[in-house]
Amino acid sequence: MRPKGAVEAEIVRLLKGAGSFVSGEALSKGIGVSRTAVWKHINALKKSGYNIEALTAKGYRIAPPYPFNDIEVASGITTGFVGRKVFFFERTDSTNRRAFELGLKGEGEGTAVIADAQDKGRGRIGRIWESPGNVNLYTSVILRPLIAPREAHELTFVMAIAVAETVAGFSGKRPTVKWPNDILINGKKAAGILLEMDSEPDRVHFVVGGIGVNLNMRKKDFPPAIREIATSLFEETGVEIDRASFARGLYSSMELWYKIYLDKGFQAVLEAWKGWFSSVGSTVRVTSFDRVLEGVCVGVDKDGALLVRTPSGNVERVISGDVDTTG
Description:
Blueprint lengths: L5 H13 L5 H8 L3 H13 L3 E5 L3 E5 L6 H5 L11 E7 L2 H10 L7 E7 L18 E7 L10 H18 L4 E3 L3 E4 L2 E13 L2 E11 L19 H5 L5 H22 L1 H9 L8 E5 L4 E9 L5 E4 L5 E4 L3 E4 L2
């Protein structure tokens, strides 16, 4: 039995690939369903927002713009498991919360949640992630690595590389990573990552990696408090980004680096991550729950902890905190 929406996604893929009219008979044979079923799925696609023209003796033809939904993501997905199953919400409180609930119910590795808008999008340290509809990508992915809880933070580095690579590919700009989980373009925040896990003392049951990317948001639409420190791919390039295409690219890069992590270990990932990290040599201020540390960033250690040389000359190891570059 095909997953829900799989036939619609295949119809969309075939119609896009043809670039012209495709007969109902050809669709029926190509997908392996009856012509009556094709007609029903075409009607379902129209209700989902697809612009599909039907002409007697010619068949069906699809035309842009395409809607943003799970069908659109699935119609061009090339991954083995990440994003192969998508739960799509027009609006939800938090994709991380929805993904966590699905993880507890046993949803498989790579299952993704996407929302067009979030009412309670979250960042690190309880911060709000502004999540208006129709402009950005808000997604969370369930992973089930066989690792100890103390190693779960390593997946933040996996996801940071995936986001940075995808941002670079779609924008033509080379972003940087701000330790531990922000993606910057020209020094302004374009994306963030929030990792949560369900575990026992000795093993991880699953990890949810939440990712928010500002794709098509305009500067005027950012809240005044972050308007000068946040950005979007549109603001940096002047080009609208197709959200479904970006999601597919992100899932492909995530799957690649997750496999590298599982096959070659964290050091291989960390070395790649360093290529996106640009704070070495910069003066930084690290704010944690109980202190503020200032000094010069000298890199990260083998566990991914931030290393800061203080004015006294000591090198402090930071495992959590909010980092600002001050010079």
